[in-house]
Amino acid sequence: MTSVQSDESTEPQKKPGHPVEPTSAPTPRRTMSNAARLGTGALVLLIVLCGLTLIAGFLNKDRCSGPSFDSQGRSEPELSRRHTGEFCYSDIAFLWVGRDINNHVFPYIHGRLDEKNMPVGGVVEYPVLTGVLIWAGAILATNDAQFLFFSGLLLAPFGLLIAWQLGRLSRWRALLWALGPPLILYAFHNWDLPVVATAVAAVYVMHRGWGRAGVHRPLMHRAIVAAVLLGLGFALKLYPALFVLPLMFYVFTGGRGGLELPAGKRYDTRGALRVAGVAAGTVVLANLPFAVLGFEGWKASFVFQGLRRADVTTNSIWYWGFRPGSDNPGTQTLISVLSPTLMVISFAVACLIGWRRYKREGTYPWIAVSAAMLCGFLLLHKVHSPQYTLWILPMFVLMNIRWGWIAAYLFADIAMGIGIFVYYEAGIFGKPDGIQDGLAAQAVVVGVWGRAALLIGLFFAFLAARSTVDEEADGEPADQVASRPA
């Protein structure tokens, strides 16, 4: 993959089985017409549409709030049944009680796992920066409705930022994000918008740079900023760390067409290691204060996730694939081994296929490989929460895959996102012995296995696709390419 598309007639000559040799000047490529770019007005419209979608998403979740509240600020009456039966469940409102969020305890510092391995004392089951966002959203809140509202105010700007970045990168295809059903279903389901913003921002700085228009940013400068963003993403929800390895390969091979390799070098090993070091350093700096001030509480969030079982709440292939013996301790041990092992294998396969494309095309397809690695993670991790669709949605914008893939995935996601809560309601409030044959169970099966099959197909579709990123030089406007000195 190249991060932009080029006319075949302007590509450098390739030797079979070898990458394109760097040249002394940038490879000529088509510049994009002004009509093809999103101007200021179009970007404003895109952001307004995204804002309206976010409002709809918030109103959907807010339907479960109030009208009265108990002594702890929990909505009444029958909150659990409303959450499942009315499709307005939100982890944000649900976790108001049970993690000391309602008591405004600063996260991790005084926390631990209790004798049942449940977080107490301010521990939340997320990495540290998400924990801080959760605490910040609760500062002014006295009940779960206010907590949802203030959290929404914190999260919404990240959703708008993603829309702006995707619009600048991939033009009107960004409507997939701005108007997509997942944004209504999941924008305020959990605290995922900030982590998605860091992942998209890493792509943005790599291919648009930052600051004053027309200023070219060297590959290494852009890669360092992207590595910081991916490290921050790890400290929010872990998954952006997957993209560090493809980014390292992109720097290792000199970026687009190998044009930014150090003089006389075939590969930039030092640059790739710098990317890894910066990402790791960012993770350490974000986590170190919490690890020093409250090690037990900091460690508890990771231990809790590591001990989590593949059960009906995880929505993954592991629970549904091993039924009815999913609850067997031996099965859980097997899953704990198979899941990470197969994930690592999928990551290696994605990087290898990306390397073969580099050999053919001269540019390491780091966005495509990142998207494929994300598919491997979503498919094989023992937890697949519904809002993870927000993670892959920008990849549908950034990669030029067929619309059939996207429509099918969104259909499977809606089946899961709605069906799972009807399934829960039947199990909790209905007749558990009969829910296996109901419509809700069928919707969940379609969601789980349909999504799994699509993730396998998307793994290879992403690796074969080209990026939709605008046809400009990395970090530099297209109209500057021709005039830039060699």
TrEMBL record:
Keywords: Membrane, Transmembrane, Transmembrane helix. InterPro entries: PIG-M, UCP010361. The keyword Membrane applies. Residues 1-32 are annotated as: Disordered. GO terms for biological process: GPI anchor biosynthetic process. The chain crosses the membrane at residues 38-59, 123-140, 147-166, 186-207, 219-236, 242-259, 271-295, 334-355, 364-383, 403-424, 444-465. The keyword Ribosomal protein does not apply. GO terms for cellular component: membrane. It comes from the Bacteria. One of its GO terms (molecular function) is GPI mannosyltransferase activity. This is Putative membrane protein. It comes from Herbihabitans rhizosphaerae.
